[in-house]
Design goal:
Elements: E1 19-23, E2 42-44, E3 47-49, E4 59-63, H1 67-76, E5 81-87, E6 92-101, H2 102-148, H3 154-164, H4 176-179, H5 183-197, H6 201-206, H7 211-237
Parallel strand pairs: 1-5
Antiparallel strand pairs: 2-3, 4-6, 5-6
Length: 238
C-alpha cells in the first residue's frame, strides 16, 4: 500500500479558494508541539502541524453535504479552510468539508433556517392556490356534467367531477381534453362512474371475466342509465 505523501501533489488537489487542511490516512504528529496522532493537520514546508500551531484551532468542522450551508458559512467566516483527504483508490484528494468560525456557522444556519421557513410558507401558499383552482375546476366539471346529463343528481355530478379531476390521479379530468371540458372527456368520466357504481362490472372483473368482455356485458345497462339522465332533461324542457 502506497504511503501517504509528505508533500502535496498540487495536480491532485481540488481547486481551493483559501487554506487547505488534511485528514491524514496514517498517524501523524505535529512537528512543532509533538502532539498526535492528529485528526486534522496543516502542511507547512512539507511538515505537519496541528491546527492550534497553525492558528486554526478556533475553527469548527462542517462536513460536506449541505451546499448552501457550506457556502454561507464561508461567506460569514473571516477565516476558513477546505478539508481534504487522499483517496488511494482514485489517487486524488477529495473534499471532506470546511473549517469555519463557530459564530459564522451559527449565522449561516440561521440564514438557511430563514430560507427553509420562506420555502415552507411558499409551499403553503401554493397549496392553497392549487386547492382553490381545483375547487373551481371541479365545480365547472360538475356543471358541465349536469348540462350534458340533466337527470344526473347534483351530488352524483359533484362526486364524478371530484373523482375525475383529482390532482395527480392521471384520470380523464386531468387530461388536456378534460381541462378543456370537452364533451368527450366529460362523458367518459360519467360513463366510468356509471360502469363501476350502477352495473355489476366490478363483480364481473373479480370473478375473472376479461375486461373487454365485462364491458360488453354491461354496455346496455350503462346506456340505459345515460339515456335516463339525458332524457330527464329533455322531458323537463318539453
Amino acid at each position: 500500500m502506497a504511503p501517504e505523501p509528505r508533500t502535496v501533489p498540487r495536480a491532485t488537489l481540488p481547486s481551493p479558494t483559501g487554506l487547505l487542511v488534511f485528514q491524514p490516512l496514517r498517524r501523524r504528529h505535529c512537528a512543532e508541539c509533538r502532539r498526535g496522532p492528529l485528526p486534522l493537520l496543516v502542511l507547512e514546508d512539507g511538515v505537519p502541524r496541528c491546527l492550534d500551531c497553525a492558528d486554526l484551532g478556533h475553527l469548527v468542522f462542517l462536513p460536506s453535504g449541505d451546499t448552501a450551508l457550506t457556502r454561507r458559512s464561508r461567506e460569514e467566516s473571516a477565516l476558513s479552510a477546505v478539508v481534504v483527504r487522499f483517496n488511494r483508490r482514485k489517487s486524488r484528494y477529495e473534499r471532506q468539508g470546511v473549517l469555519v468560525e463557530e459564530a459564522a456557522l451559527a449565522r449561516a444556519e440561521q440564514r438557511c433556517l430563514a430560507d427553509a421557513e420562506a420555502r415552507r410558507r411558499r409551499r403553503v401558499r401554493d397549496a392553497r392556490r392549487r386547492a382553490a383552482q381545483d375547487a373551481l375546476f371541479t365545480q365547472a366539471f360538475a356543471t358541465e356534467i349536469r348540462r350534458l346529463f340533466p337527470g344526473c343528481p347534483a351530488d352524483r355530478a359533484r362526486s364524478i367531477a371530484a373523482h375525475a379531476s383529482e390532482r395527480g390521479s392521471g384520470r380523464v379530468g386531468r387530461s388536456a381534453a378534460g381541462r378543456a371540458l370537452t364533451e368527450g372527456a366529460v362523458t367518459s368520466a360519467v360513463v366510468a362512474s356509471v360502469r363501476h357504481l350502477d352495473t355489476p362490472y366490478d363483480r364481473l372483473l373479480m370473478s375473472g371475466v376479461p375486461r373487454h368482455e365485462a364491458r360488453r356485458r354491461i354496455a346496455a345497462a350503462v346506456e340505459t342509465v345515460l339515456r335516463g339522465w339525458t332524457e330527464a332533461g329533455l322531458g323537463s324542457a318539453g
